[in-house]
């Protein structure tokens, strides 16, 4: 081979090697450094339950706890409204709207000290307050975040809580404002060491999804769990429909840990009596059962928590 051709081939080979090197480096940077990329989730033994919204004297100790699961109670709710007879928005100054007589700081400390696998979170917002809807209604991003960080830090530290859940369902602000307020709140509370995890609780409604997907797009890397309200789908949902809905929402919240869910009173979605655990076993066989959550302990109390026991037993099996 002539020297000029040999030199040319060598140069081309060198260029290709450098190109492959930089391409590999770029991919590694994208995987390890880009904040919006999530590692693929796998099966988990996480069980979560909302508690305290209905003031029917349910206690932490009423709910059976399987020692072989990770167990989260979620207090419902903290709301940035006044506690007056006609509640009004407070621009991020949160107050307690759960049954704190039965679910107070001493009860939190007691249940956590007695069960090393238990953590307690606080859900923000919810559907209603007083006789009306609870709206996300900030005056501005900066003022809302400042007030929310201050008031929630006080509550979280007083109650020795571990995380927050975002469950606003009605909005007087656009999706981008919601995303900035909630994203900055989670970022600040995590950065200050006040919380160790955060979740969101969307459901299949256009307005709700537009707000939560905007939050996910900008701050998804800070959100540990997606408590998707699958029970907000029609009552009588089938196993195949549930699996389809789960796939759709897993795509919407790509890379997130989307949890399966049911409502205790069977009023919506796929109920335990109609195949919920069949669907969960199918997800588990596909390495997609990232946990189960229930609305709510208040409603389950009258049923003896039988589905909580069944959920935890399923999750506790080696995953």
UniProtKB/TrEMBL annotation:
Keyword Phosphoprotein carried by entry: no
Record PROSITE patterns: GH18_1, GH18_2
Domain of life: Eukaryota
Chain ranges of the GH18 domain: 45-319
Transmembrane stretches, start-end: none
Coiled coil: none
Gene3D superfamilies: Glycosidases
Pfam family, one: Glyco_hydro_18
Cross-referenced PANTHER family: 2, PUTATIVE, EXPRESSED-RELATED, CHITINASE 2-LIKE
Name listed for the protein in its UniProt record: GH18 domain-containing protein
């Amino acid at each position: 081979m002539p020297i000029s051709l040999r030199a040319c081939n060598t140069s081309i080979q060198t260029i290709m090697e450098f190109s492959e090197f930089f391409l590999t480096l770029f991919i590694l940077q994208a995987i390890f450094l880009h904040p919006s990329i999530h590692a693929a989730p796998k099966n988990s033994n996480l069980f979560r339950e909302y508690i305290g919204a209905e003031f029917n004297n349910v206690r932490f100790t009423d709910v059976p706890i399987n020692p072989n699961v990770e167990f989260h109670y979620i207090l419902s709710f903290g709301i940035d409204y006044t506690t007056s007879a006609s509640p009004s928005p407070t621009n991020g100054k949160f107050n307690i709207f759960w049954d704190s007589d039965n679910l107070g700081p001493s009860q939190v400390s007691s249940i956590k000290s007695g069960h090393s696998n238990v953590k307690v979170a606080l859900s923000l917002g919810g559907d209603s307050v007083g006789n009306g809807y609870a709206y996300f209604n900030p005056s501005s991003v900066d003022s809302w975040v400042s007030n929310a960080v201050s008031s929630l830090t006080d509550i979280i530290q007083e109650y020795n809580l571990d995380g927050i859940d975002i469950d606003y369902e009605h909005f007087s602000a656009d999706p981008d404002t919601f995303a900035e307020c909630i994203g900055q709140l989670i970022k600040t509370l995590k950065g200050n060491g006040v919380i160790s995890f955060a979740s969101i609780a969307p459901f299949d409604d256009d307005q709700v999804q537009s707000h939560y997907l905007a939050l996910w797009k900008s701050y998804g890397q800070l959100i540990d769990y997606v408590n998707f309200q699958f029970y907000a789908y029609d009552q009588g949902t089938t196993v195949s429909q549930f699996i389809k809905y789960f796939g759709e929402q897993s795509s919407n919240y790509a890379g997130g840990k989307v949890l399966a869910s049911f409502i205790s009173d069977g009023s919506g979605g796929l109920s335990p009596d109609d195949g919920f655990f069949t669907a969960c076993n199918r997800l588990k066989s596909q390495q997609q059962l990232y946990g189960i959550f229930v609305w709510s302990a208040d409603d389950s109390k009258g049923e003896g928590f039988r589905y909580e026991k069944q959920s935890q037993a399923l999750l506790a099996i080696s995953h």
